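Batch manifest, entry 17 of 40.
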Amino acid sequence: MQTCFGYLLALALCAAGPASAQLPELRTGARVRIHTAGAAEPLTGTIAYQTASDLAVLRAPDDTAMVSLAAISRVDVSGGRRSNALRGAKLGALLGAGVGAALGMAAMAEQDGYFDYGAEVIPVSMVGGGILGGALGLLIGAASGSEQWVPAMGTVAVAPSPRGVSVSASFPF
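Output type: structure tokens
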């Protein structure tokens, strides 16, 4: 049994390097985010072309970066932009309800003749503030968006564990 485990471990160690170094065939024109060893920020752009050893990434109309395939640790492909409308509406409603509650308490506390409201003004102002804040947050969230990234290649990791060596693999599909 230990011999079988030894063979499987040796096979995993041999396959870990080539499997993580393989880059899938990325189509020209795909928007990518490339993580390289030693770089603080990932390189984001559009694939211009791919050779056997390099990848040309168009960052701006006249700015092409050449990246060695051996230096790439992870590649993400753009899955498109997503609206933040729902998130903005939730945050706006929460902030609007809080402001409405504060204004309701301030209106209830005033005793010099201008405002003479009871405690019932607090929930009313919270609902009104929540509706107005939610609508404003919805508009702001719909105007802004964030790009969604999908991993383009799998990873194989070999690490020590308390009972020996652990091998893990992750592949998108």
